[in-house]
Amino acid sequence: MYKQYKPAFRKSVFPSQIPYLMNGNPKGSLQEAAQNILEQIFLSPAIPTNYNVTTSTQPPDPPFSTQEISAVIEHLPKVTLLTPQGKATKDQKQGCPQGSCSGPALWNLVANEILNQVWPDNVHMQAFADDFVLVIKADANKSLVEDTQSAITQFSSWCSENELAISTEKKNYILFSKMVRSPKITWNGNKINRVKSFRYLGIHVDDRLNWLEHINKQGEKAIEMQQNLNRIAGGNWGISQIHRWTLYKTVIERMLVHGSSAWCLNLTFKMKRKLSSIQRPFLLYISGVYRTTPTAALQTILGIPPLHMQLQFEARFTLIYRLRIPLPPFITDTQPHDLEMKATGWSTHPSEHLKPNQISFEDGEAYIGRKDIINIFTDGSKTEHGVGAAFRVLTNDIRVYQWSAKLNDNNTVFQAELTALHEAVIYASHLPNHNTSKIHVDNRASIMASSN
Which residues pair with 399 in a beta bridge? Predict the structure, then answer.
């Protein structure tokens, strides 16, 4: 009457659900540790003793297979088990945010240490998550090797202190120089290979900085996407033209525009021709016309600008609006400070947020006659003569201060109201603490926007 429970339970558990050690550090090899884990998880049931039988035999459990043990070893550093004694986890000595038990916030604290260290003037470090890049400048081969080795030693010491291991396969360097002989760079005695191009944050950087390698790689990805699109639509069948146009603008074009502010500001004729060849198959796919149709005609019919012009527009917009870097005068006279900054939400400590009793939607006329309160009135308006914002401070019905400013003609009344409110808050914040001030706003939307 005895049943083998171990195989039954083993078939109902996924490898990703296999927990880690329940009894501390493992002994012996990884295979022995995995075997010990499985034995603790899938215990054999006790032999029944209350049956009316003279003898009881228990068949031996089948041994764990190699695949099961390998699955446990693979998931050892990735899982956690809640036991009656508490949470059992692996003491992770090395690794990176991918598949790590430590979150990105903890990793940022670790990475900030190396970023804040003092580096020579010719050494610069760039980091994104667990990808680090060292940029080193030197006038001669000998000084380049010495400065590079010194920077590597400093970075390696930080890795040793934090018990981090660097992937040997991902260590390489690129040289931006006409130097024929490659400098010998080593990491802990192992030679670092020189490459002609590398991929960082989705952008392929080549040693000539002509960005043709990046365009070619992006073109290969675009061809794969175009082949996949051909499977769901043809010349006279499949999804409609508007859906094809939407797929191109939201998927293909967004993929090609990635990082354009770094490589698409000064395009050469060769780069423009390559981008045009990448765009042409998609124009044919959207329009469904003959393949002999000129590319310029396809762009005109579909209302899609040339790809190099679209990418250059995106690059310039990102440069001036997001990076706040001015463009050359022959392109535009608009400066970054002329553009409104996009709000990113609260960046202050919660203790500094507005309290519920600091904002009221009730009529403030009752406070106007009080002599112990400083009343501040704000207003914003827009007429055919322009846009303006102002506020006035009254104490005992006496004007003690006023402020006004003329805004750009393209500003709205709402922006003028917020500007006046912002200046009034700055003025009130500099008043003595024993004075009570009330700011009266005649625009409910401005009050609600300030309270959020």
Answer: 394
CATH number, domain of 404, equals 3.30.420.10
Say which amino acid occupies 304: I
Instruction: Please indicate, yes or no, whether residues 162 and 259 belong to a single structural domain of this protein.
Output: no
DSSP assignment of 248-294: IIIIIHHHHTTTHHHHSSS--HHHHHHHHHHHHHHHHHHH---TTS-
Tokens standing for residue 182 = 């490659």
Question: Which tokens is 181 given?
Answer: 């002989």
Q: Which two tokens stand for residue 58?
A: 């228990």
Q: What are 190's strand-pairing partners? A: 187
Question: For residues 133 and 111, what is the distance between their CA atoms, to the nearest angstrom?
Answer: 13
- The values of phi and psi at residue 58, to 5°, are -115, 115
- What's the CA gap between 293 and 151, in Å, rounded? 56
Per-residue confidence (pLDDT) for residue 357, from 0 to 100? 64
At which of 161, 195, 229 does a domain end? 195
Residues in CB range of 207: below 8 A, 6 or more apart: 174, 175, 176, 196, 197
- pLDDT, residue 45, reads 47
User: Which residue positions in the chain have pLDDT lower than 50?
Assistant: 1-28, 45-58, 77-79, 81, 90-96
Is the backbone of residue 9 left (phi > 0), alpha (psi -120 to 50) or beta?
Answer: alpha
Q: What pLDDT score was predicted for residue 238?
A: 78
Question: Rounded to an integer, what distance in angstroms lies between the CA atom of residue 209 and that of residue 204?
Answer: 10
Rounded Cα–Cα distance for residues 262 and 181 (Å): 28
Tokens of 185: 């760079």
Q: How many domains does the chain have?
A: 3
In a 3-state reduction of DSSP, which class is residue 83? strand
For residue 384, the model assigns a pLDDT of 87
Interhelix angle for 307-317 vs 269-287, to 10°? 110
pLDDT at 94: 44
Report angle CA 216, 222, 225 to the nearest 5 degrees: 150
Q: What is the CB neighbour count within 10 angstroms for residue 19?
A: 19
- How is the chain split among helix, strand and coil, in percent rounded to 5? 40, 15, 40
pLDDT, residue 5, reads 37
Query: Among residues 266, 265, 264, which one has the least CA distance to residue 278?
Result: 264
Tell me the β-bridge partners of 380.
389
Distance CA 218, CA 266 (A): 18
pLDDT value of residue 279:
94
Is residue 135 a contact partner of residue 177, using CB atoms and an 8 Å limit? Answer: no
Instruction: Indicate whether 240 and 181 sit together in one domain.
Output: no
Which range of residues forms the domain containing residue 156?
104-195
b/e map of 353-381 (b: 16 or more CB within 10 Å)?
eeeeeeeeeeeeeebeeeeebbbbbbbbe
Q: DSSP labels for 360-428?
A: --S--HHHHT-TTEEEEEEEEEEETTEEEEEEEEEETTEEEEEEEEEE-TT--HHHHHHHHHHHHHHHH
Residue 297 maps to a domain: yes
